[in-house]
Amino acid sequence: MKSSLHQRHLGIAISYFAIAAVLGLLLRYYSIFSFGFNYRYMVHAHSHIALLGWVYVALTTLLHYCFMDKKTPSKRYRHIFWGTQGTLIGMLLTFPFQGYALFSILFSTLFLIVSYVYTYHFWKNIDPKYQKRSSLQCAKAALVYMVTSSLGPWALGAIMSTLGAQSIWYRLSIYFYLHFQYNGWMLLALLGLFLYVLEQRDLIIPQKSFVRFFQAINIGIVLSFFLSTLWTEPSVAFYLLGGLGAIVQLYALIYLWALTKAKVDKLHLSNLQNLLLQTVVILTGLKILLQLLTALPYFAQMAATYLDFTIGYLHLTFLGVISFGLFFFMDHFRLFRMSKKSYLLYFLGFLLTECLIFYKGIAAWQEWGVFSGYMSFLSICSLLILFGVLTLLVKNLSKTQKTT
Fold first, then answer.
1. What's the pLDDT tens digit per position in 338-371?
2. Residue extents of the structural domains in the chain
3. CA angle 197-186-112, nearest 5°?
4. pTM recorded for the entire structure
């Protein structure tokens, strides 16, 4: 069933994605045109709008659409949603000009508080028919990881006032937040939506099999955090725990795919939806393999030394796995339709920029030196991502206007 409320909210999420893409372009062109803005401040704005404007708003909208009791008045949800927008706009208007300072920290803090309110609202207003569903267990766990990840930002204030930004605990707090965001909150929320799609067609995973997967994926999520600590060159135990976490996470996802592969064929997805899902599966496999590789001391040190590898990995996760996953569900639920043109533009931009970013990391590692005009070429390829997002947004907004 279509919902104009959720369509509008997803339109806002995509708009944030377009804004984040524009900010990313400004960062790409910074060294070419010598813009006058503070580069670090703009990085903060770009990352916050991408993670919290695009991914958070899209995921919470989809979770609300799928699992909320339809009898629950939507007025409270609207208040939570617009409260969230107030904090996001506040961050957008402060981070580019002051970085982490009084007002940007204030809006970031308010965002965390509103996200807790959303979690409470979700928990209290779940449609009773989903209470025992496997999909809901994943969605609930995802929200728990989202709340858990926020311990990182809360710790930053105390760390800066006592140990300073140069302390290893400062970076560890950021990595704690990022890890439980993309490996916990975002990944499990997408898996919950995937199981929801199957359950809507009565394609149920046996409870015993689900429990086996669920335990494995959670063990993997928790233990793989230790991979984010290896840049500190800790004892061998941290390498073993992080490596075990990556292996268990890989096992859990392969096991889930084995359980659901035959069921996916019964969904009768469109060609584009099949393409989106296949893209997500391939990119997730690549992400997990790269994660597993960093359990080896040599590659852990390489990832810490050459920043482009870290940037490439984060973009692979957010622009790849998470974003393509969101595109799939928005299209499947007929809330925001993806076109082949928007997919091709976005995918081509994503693929080219990933290749270029990893190439620069490899070049630095091997002391090759990058080719002339590298930044210009990277900037042009980044434009394709923006064009893909704008094509998606314009097409859906024009359709909405025609139906109103």
1. 999 999 999 999 999 999 999 999 999 998 989 8
2. 1-125, 133-266
3. 125
4. 0.94
